[in-house]
Amino acid sequence: MYRVAAILLVGCLCLPAGLSTATTGPAGPEIVELYPNPTADGDHGEFVTVRVPPGTNLSQYRLADEQRSVRLDDTWGNSSAVVFSTHPQRTTSLVGRPVRELSDDIQLANGGERLRLLHNGSVVDEVTYGRAPEGEAYDAETDAWKPLGRTDRPVVSGRGGTVETFVLPDSPNRAVEFQRVPPSESDSQATQ
Length: 192
Known about the structure:
Elements: H1 2-19, E1 30-35, E2 47-51, E3 61-64, E4 69-71, E5 81-85, H2 88-92, E6 99-101, E7 113-119, E8 122-129, E9 136-139, E10 144-147, H3 172-180, H4 183-191
Parallel strand pairs: 5-6
Antiparallel strand pairs: 1-2, 1-9, 2-5, 3-4, 3-7, 7-8, 9-10
Organism: Halovenus salina
Protein name: Lamin tail domain-containing protein
Region (Disordered): 149-192
């Protein structure tokens, strides 16, 4: 009898823990991408992308590295992801999302560091990354670096046609000459 009661008690205590791990409310903002080591001199264009649930007031949040924290701008509109950069003009050309200015008190370390998203002093999200390869963005969801602007397009092959290849600057004269000839004449020259 005691064994049955003990088994029931243990089963009741373990059951709720295994049923659901979902939260009841909407998830808060989270850091999803970092670009700490741009190819530009002085690391101009580094950025942090934050996923933002609808109705979130970002001005109540701070982004912190290992030395400082800065308040986030709340003028992000209705986008689900917002990019924060110390050089928004340069970053806009790198990403296809809204870019908001971030105080240059935050500088992402090329050698790696920990970034935290704070709400009222409490950590709501944290990302730690290692040495940043130049020109690559860190995807916090997959824990992987990827070249910024990389595409996953399939290889395309074709048959027929005329192709002329050249490499600059070794012999730029042929390329310049080819560009000066009108297209209809270059077609006839290519077939000779």
